[in-house]
Amino acid sequence: MEWSPIAKPRGAVRREPCLKDYEEARRTFSWDQAAAQLAGLPGGALNIAYESVDRHASGAARDRLAIRFLAQGADPHDLTFGELSAASHRFANVLKQLGVKRGERVATLMGRVPALYTTVLGTLAAGAVYCPLFSAFGPEPVKARLGLGAVRVLVTTDLFYRRKVAPIRAELPDLRHVLVVRTPGAGDVPEGTTDFDELMRTASPEYEVARTSPEDYALLHFTSGTTGKPKGVLHAHAAIVAHVATARWVLDLQDDDVYWCTADPGWVTGISYGVVAPLACGVGMIVDREEFDAPRWYEILDTQRVTVWYTAPTAIRMLMKAGVELAKARQYPSLRHLASVGEPLNPEAVVWGVEAFGLPFHDTWWQTETGAIMIANYPCMEVRPGSMGRPVPGVEAGIVHPRDDGGADEVAQPDEVGELALRPGWPSMFRGYLNEDERYRKCFRGGWYLSGDLAKRDADGYYWFVGRADDVIKAAGHLISPFEVESVLMTHPSVSQAGVIGVPDPVAGSAVKAFVELKAGQSASEALRKDILAHARRQLGVAVAPREIAFSEQLPRTRSGKIMRRLLRARELGLPEGDLSTLEGAP
Ligand code: WT7
């Protein structure tokens, strides 16, 4: 089916977008110019926390709403820029008191609660490095990331601590302090932890923000690869330059906006565009503590008068499933711009936006490694449903074929599929994989950063997503490493080998499916399947555990013994099996 371009948003609110002429901006833009728009600190210093809150708190925006927290059954809780700055300074003083030094790492394992936002900003203000962990992770992924990151301080809740951290605490020698936010009425904090609120109450709200250099590390985000351990992606304070520029051009954030980013702050979107970028633009935002709920979301969009909404394909497909009538039961007179990220946004979903809200969803593409939006559909340009859009000004993208000799060739023709690549040099480009220089170097070839995504570019310069070049799985927007799941499955006493793949799912995009080979003497049964599933859920958490487990007599392996996930996938989906010359037992 052909989808026609959507020329102009039909929503009620029209206003001049920040980016008025894409071609002109591409010609004239420079990152130095963008950096000059920031406040900066004396001596050429740059600090994300200062740009996000303190700059506003020390000026006319002091009493402006920064974050409105919503929670079921509670009144909205509002924080102004002045209050947020004071709270983050208190936390920076707490870190000082705990002896945390610049560059050391502070992590959170929490939902969307006020303490999380204070921790992010206070950590950055102190010149320490902030590392988010997804609150739906089970103990295994939490242990792996806290260990690799040599995290010094963890801020979490008493409930998460008991369930996910206490069982693994002894294996984390670098973790000196755990601060917990107490559940009201739940009694004392667990043994070996400190009460977060108590420390905050006695800390001073005065703090001089660390004069970090633009190249000092600020953020550590863990992401998943096909093989090996999770990758610790390092970003520098300079990333804020790209956060602000893209928030203006792509999300079109303007002074009086009410912005809502539904991404969880356990991942990069929820930090870059759910904390830092909107605050740095001086824009007030909504944070909802609750999980997805279609009627609730429509109510928020309506009653909170949200103007700019950044969400994700899985959520949009869940809204579509709930029916357009539900969307139409309310009105959204303030809403003026919709954007999406994280997984392929199907053209049906783009067009559905027009039906439900009078506005199309604008797809955006980026990765943990790129730190900020790299390719997007802009308010000033026609939307081509199904396309990720065009590179942001200041970013050069290409479609390339990497060569074995270390080079890469750009494709010769429009619409030719290759690997999506970017020319290094934008400010939010990752500065390394933590302790893995070789893995970092391998991402670059022939002067390009290789994204690991397959894509094509049409004759007009629009990019179209084709698939992943590797085996990682995108389920409900979360990047999942098959290796991490296989490793946990193999710790079950009955399992000898496991192969994990993504299978198509109409709502989540992909779902995790595992094939397991049993140890000699074990026989497949429904009870064993359930037991393996329960084991995986307990260790990995529901967001990462397989949805389905199938027994396999013999998993396909290469001659060197590596499970051939590609072949498992081809067989599962009835696709051509491709080159089988490396298959064990092949002639
Ligand atoms: C991978 C990066 C984007 C920040 C949050 C996720 C996939 C991302 C799109 C899109 C198709 C997309 C890619 C990419 N992805 N955006 N608009 N269309 N696929 O960051 O967890 O590092 O995941 O998400 O495969 O490489 P991440």
Task: Pick out its properties.
globular; 9-stranded mixed beta sheet; 23% strand; alpha/beta; 30% helix; GMP Synthetase, Chain A, domain 3; 587 residues; 6-stranded antiparallel beta sheet; Rossmann fold; binds 5'-O-[(S)-butoxy(hydroxy)phosphoryl]adenosine
SSE layout and pairings?
Blueprint: H1 22-28, H2 31-36, H3 48-57, E1 65-70, E2 77-80, H4 81-97, E3 105-109, H5 114-125, E4 129-133, H6 139-148, E5 153-157, H7 158-165, E6 177-181, E7 194-195, H8 196-202, E8 217-223, E9 231-236, H9 239-249, E10 258-261, H10 268-280, E11 284-288, H11 294-303, E12 308-311, H12 313-322, H13 324-328, E13 337-341, H14 347-357, E14 361-365, E15 375-376, E16 390-391, E17 397-402, E18 408-410, E19 418-422, E20 432-433, H15 437-441, E21 444-445, E22 448-457, E23 463-468, E24 473-475, E25 478-480, H16 482-489, E26 495-505, E27 509-518, H17 526-540, E28 548-551, H18 565-573
Bound molecules: 5'-O-[(S)-butoxy(hydroxy)phosphoryl]adenosine.
5'-O-[(S)-butoxy(hydroxy)phosphoryl]adenosine is lined by residues 223, 268-269, 341-345, 363-368, 388, 451-453, 465, 468, 474, 479.
Summary, kept brief:
30% of the residues lie in helices and 23% in strands. It is an alpha/beta fold and 587 residues long. The strands form 6 sheets. It has a 9-stranded mixed beta sheet with strand order 2-1-11-10-12-13-14-15-16. Strands 17, 18, 19, 21, 22 and 23 form a 6-stranded antiparallel beta sheet that branches.
